[in-house]
Structure formats: C-alpha cells, structure tokens
C-alpha cells in the first residue's frame, strides 16, 4: 500500500492506524517523539488491536533482554596496565 | 610499559582536541576537590567520578570494565583491525587519566570518554587511510529503506483490512518474560546485536546496553536526533525479528 492511498481517503481510520503503520511508530512513541494527534492514533490502535499489543509486548521484551546484556570483559593483562598507569598518574 | 611512558604526549593532544573549549577560550582549571559536576546522568557515575578524584584506583578499574568493550567496538568502526581498536582504547584510558583533573562536567563523564575515543579512532583511521566516515555510514543506513516488519506479514490494499496483520501475531509462549531471560535466548540476542549494521549497532549498544540517553548518543557519535531515532528503531526492530525467528525455531522443534 502506498502512502498516497491514505491521502486519497480523508475519512479517519477507525483503527487509528493500520498495523503496518503502527509498527513503524513504536520507537517514536516510546521516545515520546510523536505529535499529539499521532500519539492519540497510536494509542487508539493499541487499545483496539490484540496483535499490535503483542507486538508492543515483544518490543518491550526485546528491550528488556538487550538491557540485560553485558559487555564482554576487558582483555587479560590490560587491567593491570591500567592500574599501573593510574598509579603513575597519581604519583606525580 | 610504553603506554604509560607516552602519557604526557597524549595529555597535550587531549587538551587541544578532546576537551570541548567553552566560548571565550579554555576555562581555568577547576577548583581542587570541587564537588562532582551537576550534569551526571546517573548516581553511579557521580559516585565513580568522586572516587576517581580522590585517587581511588578501583574506581578507575570499574570505569574501564564498564566501558572498555563498547569503546573498542566503537573504535573498530573507524580503524582497520581489532588490534588497532584495542590500542586506540588503551590510549583513550590514558588520556582520560591525564584529563581527569581538568574535566569540568560540561558533558557527562561517559560522553566525554566516548567522544575522546571517537576523535582518536577517527584520526587514527584517517592516518591508516581507512576513510570510512562514520557520518556517511549513518546517512547511508538511515536513508536506505528498511521496514520494521516484512510487508508480506500485512494484508494487501485489496483486502477488507488493508495493512493489518495477515495472521494474528503469536505471543512468545506462556511466560515470555522467563523465555526472554533464559540463557539460550540471551545468547541469540547477543549474536543478533553483533550482526546489526554498524551504525544501528552503535546506537542500540549505547542506548540499550550502556544506558545512554538519546542526547548523550547524539553527542558522542555526532548524529542528529532524527537519525539517532531511525537507527534505534531499526536496530530494535531487527532484534525483535531475531527473537521471533528464534522463538519460531524453538516452537517448531519443541
């Protein structure tokens, strides 16, 4: 569906948005970057569409998982180098 | 160690290229023992900074452990090998040690460190004639069309519900919280993060793994607010898709 299809039809979408539009606005919604109108349409769709609620849940779960990732360790030996450098920077 | 021996040379570079110069020229040294700057985004960082100022070696080690791997991944975007990236990050830590006394908290401590590494890696990359500019990488990734979800998952324009899901989206099991936090799922997520295109990976890593704010990412990477959001959206959407594939495979074999 091209964006012009929607422009050609000025009647408001009873779903607020279509699902394929919803999924593209999730980050802007979470970042609080939507206009008041878009936010209202987004929330209307969220309240009406079970699959998009599941989608939102999956994005939240993904984010939760990413936030729980930890970076790998500093290479062996490097920490001792930094400790020495720290001591010498304080010793001056 | 030769790294420590070169520290004084780096401190010169730090003064001129890494520290933001305020309007009207460089500011005087901060008052010794001054309180931690007010701009710290999180309490942990303020505590670390205060400990560093007191000369607490363990605080420095904690700072290194917190950021080293991410700094290396960032540096790797600009330089041709892992070993050069490691060198750039080691230089950065020494520059941080040298610059700490003069750090005034106009940015957060971590943003300051990340900017040092980006500047140094960029300079090093230019010297080694690997001139992949990060800004062109960002523009390229942000401007190429990319959907959060494959279009074939949605109904076509002639359908009674155009643009709606073809089939209802299945949840990730009975207890998705537990599933996502399982060791196996986390391993898949880690692998998917490593496979993100570089600019997306950088933004997702900083925002979601390292807990940077949007403003801090824009400052550290030199990206616009709009591009930061586009890259974050695409990166997170790809990770969700990777988990969906992982869940589907597990479901199919269960």
Give the % helix of chain A. Answer: 55-70%
Number of helices of chain B: 12
What does the average pLDDT of chain B come to? 80
What's the story with the biggest beta sheet of chain B? none
Explain briefly what this protein structure is.
By secondary structure, chain A is mainly alpha-helical.
Structural write-up:
- Chain A is mainly α and 92 residues long.
- Chain A has one domain.
- Chain A has five helices and no strands.
- Chain A has helices at 3-8, 19-30, 36-48, 50-68, 78-90.
- Chain A is elongated.
- In chain B, helix 4 (57-76) packs across helix 5, helix 5 (82-99) crosses helix 6 and helix 9 packs across helix 12.
- Chain B is built from twelve helices and no strands.
- Chain B is mostly helical.
- The radius of gyration of chain B is 22 Å and the shape is elongated.
- Mean pLDDT of chain B is 80; it is low at 1-41.
- Chain B has two domains: 2-21 and 30-127, Rna Polymerase Sigma Factor, Chain: A; 134-253, Arc Repressor Mutant, subunit A.
